[in-house]
Amino acid sequence: MKILSFTFETALHFSEPVSEHSFVLRCLPKNTPSQTVMDSQAIISPRTPVANQTDGFGNRLQIGRIEAAHDEFSFISTGLVVVDAAHIEGEDAQNAEKGPLASGPYGASAHPIYANPSTFAAADAAMRAFAQEASAEASGPWSIAQALSHAVHERLAYVKDVTDVSTTASQAFALGSGVCQDFAHVLIALLRSLGIPARYVNGLIVGEGATHAWVEMHDGVQWRGIDPTHDRPIDDTYIVLSHGRDFADCAIESGVFRGGARQDQRVAVQVFDQASQQ
Predict the structure, then answer these.
(1) pLDDT, tens digit, for every residue of 24-42?
(2) How many CB atoms lie within 10 A of CB 276?
(3) pLDDT digit string (tens) for 221-231?
(4) What does pTM read for this prediction?
(5) All domains of the chain, ordered by start, with CATH?
């Protein structure tokens, strides 16, 4: 168990003033079976009233609209989170999602949306064959997930600026490179091709200066996290901000505005283990 403090700042600069700017943020952590939020807050500039809501995946939303012209938009979220990944319990009682259970071989307690292909996480024929080969010697869903995570880690090179937020799992797989979002989408698609429910997670990690993405798979009893970018299981150094079927469901920041401005984004993240700060 660790107590983690975090500061997460995103600043957008527009090349010319924009107006009627509607935005949705998922920049605050939520309570999960392995994570308890002790304190959190978000500061948004320009100052504007914000509605705090929860989406269908249980993610915390900050929804607002800025009518006046502005050429800068920023938000800072800070807080304190207790993470205990070693004591994950079944999520059903805490999960806001309702619906029938998945019918796949490892989906006894997972919503069926996580077992089916989604916009950014659908496996093509080459990926399905890759999943079969990479998991041939694995036994059980968690062992399969670990085998596939390692295979994805070996298959893809971490290279910035060769993909973007619209890149699909099959495109990244064919390209053989990408960033954490692509690693996660590829692993999700591979797991689902074998009947294992999987979902996309956005969050923060101790020691990294940016946001990160990883995967949670359902082993028939509970959700378990695995990070194909680093090829390791999730531990107490990870803070969950949001999850969904893929990136499309749980982007940390999204919005629309009136104007034709270009955007430049700057992100800064600091996550500290409080025990190491004493």
Answers:
(1) 999 999 999 899 999 999 9
(2) 8
(3) 889 999 999 99
(4) 0.91
(5) 2-83+253-277 (2.60.40.2250), 100-249 (3.10.620.30)
